[in-house]
Target: Cell division ATP-binding protein FtsE
Amino acid sequence: MIVFENVTKTYKTNIGLDHVSVKINKGDFVFLVGPSGAGKSTFIKLILKEIDADSGSIKVNGTEITTLSNRKIPKLRRSTGIVFQDFRLLPKMTVYENVAFAMEIVHMSSRAIRRQVPQVLSLVGISNKANKYPDELSAGEQQRVAIARAIVNNPTVLIADEPTGNLDPDTAWEIMRLLEQINLRGTTIVMVTHAKDIVDKMGKRVIVIEKGKIVRDDVGAYLKEED
Ligand code: ADP
Ligand code: ADP
Model:
């Protein structure tokens, strides 16, 4: 699914990732944690091929992406959805239009759009807001729309970059339940977070990055007893 082998990425004098090897399987739910500057964004940008590694191999869905030709990058991007802390919805489009737009830009037919947008809005529990604009929605509702947009093209991987960072605790948990539900449908989820309580209670795999290296990778709490 996602396989890093000996991946290094440096920015002039800064280390982004330092000889990282890791395997994330189809259907996994993984938390990516670590202090600011550890390399989490670098890891995600490499998966999306927004940046290139200096060395090493990165495979996504069996395809080596480090040597991928430009014309194959759109297909890679379609296989990965992403949601951000700050939602990043288009303010002049309605909820329906925001989600439909994600299908239009990858040239899906209007028939497919008319079928899939209502389905995905229903899945994330926001059908009743289809004709609202983002600024008419609560933060939690906006994140649901962002999730709908990220999954509408059926990506195999959903990357969530601090998706609960702007939400109150109850709303954050509603979003976690939704991500869990999406994961149960088979979508691999990689979630970057600083929310210790969420990581602890979810009991999923935790990959800890520090100074560009993976220092821990197992199932359990954000911090282990001995830390
Ligand atoms: P976060 O901790 O939320 O991932 P960062 O502060 O690490 O955010 O990075 C925010 C953005 O700034 C990222 O796109 C990252 O690539 C970029 N960035 C981080 N550090 C530097 C730096 N030293 N010089 C230039 N850009 C940087
Ligand atoms: P995180 O997401 O865990 O905060 P990043 O991957 O953004 O960490 O950053 C890892 C390291 O790479 C940091 O030292 C950061 O300053 C550096 N870095 C990230 N992006 C850039 C950039 N565009 N230019 C220079 N240094 C960068």
